[in-house]
Write a structure and sequence with these properties.
The chain is 32% helix and 26% strand. By secondary structure, the chain is α+β, with helices and mostly antiparallel strands. The chain folds into three domains: 225 residues, Spore Coat Polysaccharide Biosynthesis Protein SpsA, Chain A; 78 residues, no CATH class; 173 residues, Pnp Oxidase, Chain A (Roll). The protein is elongated. The protein starts with a helix and ends with a strand. The structure holds flavin mononucleotide.
Length: 494
């Protein structure tokens, strides 16, 4: 193509954050090479551990600006590094990840046309072809085309904040945007929904966008994801990283100003995480609005429970912990279970002490565990735990095995024949036989100082210095007070 003709075509900066997916990058580069749109530059910021991608670039004829990060920067900073590599005269930014590739040879031309034909828009996106490859050859592929629904597009055109209610834009590779100075990048505070922050930033400044249902980009579903196919995409209401991101998004874009977003925030973020009225007020939500949504939420929970009955699935009834504080206190003295998990080891122990209450404006369960319990070593590695409170009482076997033996010596879950149930928010499982469950994330852990007791009879009785740490009853060890934020509370129904 003559240089003059090229000059009239906007320069597209294809920005690729790479991370250990050399097969994907190779497939992507191949699809870029085949594009009929000539005026492009390719930038790769490589966060890979190995030099496979570097080797690939070095041995191909394709012209690439390439940086292999000496220190791994992490998902979001690496994406930003790739975007920052764009030339000053680039007019469009097209981010592609190692899972994306162009569907056809004219895909990029079509992406460019979306923006050149709609000068008022700064952002465009297409449908996606999701390709699952189960074998070696192309004949082993199954492809599903996905695109945002008409309702979503219509709602987004009316108000870009609709994105908060569900992101149908799809994979990053399905988007293209106009370059600006500085270029739009990802918000580094985001841990879960960084794409949404980028879309929000662009759409807030330029609410008009262009969309085609045509799957201009293909997205390869990785084999690893296939293995995990049964795993549900985490819902906001169950994933803690999502919880943080949605809170931040709500604050950053003043989403309380939209009634729809406020309601979404209440139903899908605040109520499932048991947030208080005070916290709702911090989110510009009135007590009346919160209370009425709370009623609707409870009713919806009840009808979901009824619908699930008889399906054979493990059912959990969400509870407000304050409704059960008395029950928890009454049962604790007879024993509850405290379960921990680190590096695939799961351990449970009997606890008799514990406090349910409010601290740092959060609902907390404080548990008290002696310094040399095996549980402490697991908690130091993974700062999450579940508390399982019986509806009646722990069985003698549970008390004997989980209250008098250490996880250092035996597998208590196996010995006591306990059934583990997948958790909702954290990584530590619940226990079916002991159904009232609090999922907790450690906020604070402090070793108690035995010299500070006002009641001097306590150290002598409860911390006998002549009893070895290994003793499962009272011994010379001080307790750690472990303050866990209660991030989910429910009763398992068998
Ligand atoms: C009824 C009962 C209540 C208990 N309460 C506690 C407690 O609150 N804190 C504690 O550190 N140990 C408590 N224990 C002792 C632990 O359960 C026991 O030492 C256990 O073996 C520790 O397990 P681990 O070494 O696997 O962590 C209790 C034991 C019983 C039987």
């Amino acid at each position: 193509m003559a240089n003059e003709q090229m000059k009239e075509m906007p320069l597209v900066s294809i920005c690729i954050p790479a991370f250990n997916n050399v097969t994907g990058i190779e497939r992507l580069l191949h699809s870029i090479e085949q594009q009929d749109y000539p005026n492009i530059e390719i930038n790769i910021s490589d966060d890979s551990d190995s030099d496979e991608v570097e080797w690939l670039i070095g041995n191909s004829d394709i012209d690439v600006n390439y940086v292999h990060n000496t220190e791994k920067s992490g998902l979001v900073p690496n994406r930003n590094a790739a975007v920052r590599m764009k030339s000053d005269n680039a007019q469009f930014v097209k981010i592609m990840t190692g899972d994306d590739y162009f569907t056809n040879t004219d895909s990029l031309s079509k992406f460019v046309a979306l923006l050149t034909e709609n000068p008022q828009a700064a952002f465009a996106f297409s449908g996606t072809r999701e390709v699952v490859r189960q074998g070696e050859g192309a004949e082993d592929e199954t492809a599903t085309d996905r695109a945002a629904s008409d309702e979503f597009i219509e709602a987004l055109q009316k108000d870009y904040r609709h994105l908060f209610l569900g992101n149908e834009i799809g994979s990053l590779g399905a988007t293209i945007y106009r370059a600006s100075e500085p270029a739009y990048i990802f918000d580094v505070k985001s841990r879960f929904a960084s794409d949404m922050f980028l879309y929000f930033d662009i759409l807030r400044a330029h609410p008009e966008f262009v969309f085609t249902k045509e799957p201009l980009v293909s997205f390869a579903v990785r084999e690893k994801r296939l293995d995990n196919k049964v795993e549900e995409v985490p819902r906001v209401s169950r994933d803690y990283r999502a919880y943080d991101d949605y809170n931040y998004m709500y604050d950053k874009y003043h989403l309380w100003e939209s009634e729809e977003c406020r309601k979404y925030m209440i139903r899908n973020v605040l109520l499932p995480f048991n947030r208080s009225y005070a916290e709702a007020r911090e989110k510009h939500i009135s007590t009346t609005e919160y209370a009425s949504e709370w009623m609707a939420f409870k009713l919806a929970g009840l009808s979901k429970e009824n619908a699930e009955e008889g399906t054979g699935r493990i059912q959990k009834k969400d509870i407000q912990v304050e409704d059960y504080a008395g029950h928890i206190m009454r049962k604790l003295t007879g024993g509850a279970l405290l379960t921990t998990k680190a590096e695939d080891e799961i351990n449970t122990m009997v606890i008799g002490w514990g406090t349910v209450g409010i601290n740092w404006n959060k609902k907390v369960f404080v548990t008290y565990v002696r310094e040399n319990r095996h549980t402490i070593s697991l908690l130091q590695k993974n700062k999450e735990f579940t508390v399982s409170v019986p509806m009646e009482k722990l069985t003698p076997t549970m008390l004997e095995i989980c209250g008098r033996q250490s996880g250092r010596d035996i597998d208590k879950i196996k010995e006591a024949e306990l059934t583990l149930i997948d958790p909702e928010v954290i990584s530590v499982p619940a226990i079916k036989e002991v159904p009232l469950t609090l999922e907790c994330k450690v906020l604070y852990m402090q070793k108690q100082d035995l010299s500070l007791f006002e009641d001097e009879s306590i150290p002598g009785k409860l911390y006998p210095q002549d009893v070895d740490s290994k003793n499962t009853g009272a011994n010379k060890d001080p307790h750690y007070a472990i303050y866990g934020e209660i991030v989910d509370a429910y009763i398992i129904k068998s």
